[in-house]
Each structure stands twice: as structure tokens, then as C-alpha cells.
Amino acid sequence: MPKKRLITEMNRLSPDAFKEADKVPMVIVLDNIRSLHNVGSVFRTCDAFRVSEIILCGLTNTPPHPEIHKTALGAEFSVQWRYESETINAVNQLKAAGYTVYAVEQAHNSLSLPDVLPDNQQKYALVLGHEVKGVDQAVVDGCHGCVEIPQFGTKHSLNVSVAAGIVVWHFFNGLSSDLI
Q1: Considering its fold, how many domains does the chain have in total?
Q2: Which three-class secondary structure state does DSSP give residue 31?
Q3: Is residue 8, in this structure, part of any structural domain at all?
């Protein structure tokens, strides 16, 4: 019978060791995320999969904040992050730095996530948008393309932190061969 492991048995990195560790060449951009719990959850997911950076844009709140900490559980101290007032500026900076930038959005001609095969020689940035409005159209227009998570139920969207978990996991699997 499996026995749950204790936290002390999991050999997790300290925040300082995390900052020094190799990261997956992936940046997450949050475009006007309202919920501080969603922001914290994305921090925690990015910590789990050693994402290089989170860029918080527009009305997205920044640490330190108790509501972000509630779901981040300290990941806001380990994951590198910065604030950019205009999401399109972050996208343009990433493109200029050699990133392939995808909006995670339901759009005409979007790529289905299972069909995207990340190249571990490439850097990626994934833009996730507002809980109701999604990624702003001007930001979508500035990206290299859109990635869409296939869905098969009655709802037309996923919670942004859940969507972040799915796309981060997918890209991590294609980019992490040197880390695991």
C-alpha cells in the first residue's frame, strides 16, 4: 500500500537553490488577471516546473500581497517576476529577445495544444488573459500565434490558473530534458 511522503522526504530546493537552478526556457505573461488567487496559483505552478519568469501586466496585481501569498505559498519569493504596465510591450520585448510568443486563446487558426511540439532549442513565452475577456486582441495580434486547449464539455473556457497549469506542463515536457 502506498504511503504518503513527508515534506522532508521530497528533496525540494530551497528558494535560494531554486534561484540558482537551471530553468525551463519559458516565460509566462499574465494579461490583466483580476483574481489574486489565480496569480498566486500561477506562481506556484511556475515554481513547480522551474519556469524562467512571470511577467505581470496591466491590472494584474503584484507581490507582496496576502491574497497572492495564500495560493502561491511562497512561490512569489522563488520565481523571478517583473511588472510591465502594457502587455504588448512585454510581448514585443520577448519577441526581440528571441522568444516564440503564443497567446493561450481560442482563436481562428489557433494551434491545438497537443499538436504543438516544443523545441528544446527554442525559448517560449505564453500569454494568459483576463478571466472573462481573455487575452486582449491587440496582444493576440502581436503574438506569433495562438495555442488552444481542446475542450469537450459544455463550457467554453477554463479557469486561467488551470489553463496555465495545462500549458506549462505541456511545454515543460518538451523543454525539460536537461532538468529531469
Answers
A1: 1
A2: strand
A3: no
Which amino acid is it at 126? L
CATH number of the domain residue 97 falls in: 3.40.1280.10
Residue 121 near residue 25, CB atoms below 8 Å: no
Q: Are 104 and 6 in contact (CB under 8 A)?
A: no
The DSSP secondary structure of 137-154, one letter per residue, reads HHHHHHSSEEEE----SS
Residue 132 lies in a domain: yes
Domain presence at residue 9: no
Residue 97 lies in a domain: yes
C-alpha cell at 140: 493576440
> Using one digit for the tens of pLDDT, what is the confidence trace for 104-147?
999 999 999 999 999 999 999 999 999 999 999 999 999 999 99
Are 68 and 39 in contact by the 8 Å Cβ rule? The answer is yes
What SS3 class is residue 13? coil
Q: Enter the pTM of the model.
A: 0.95
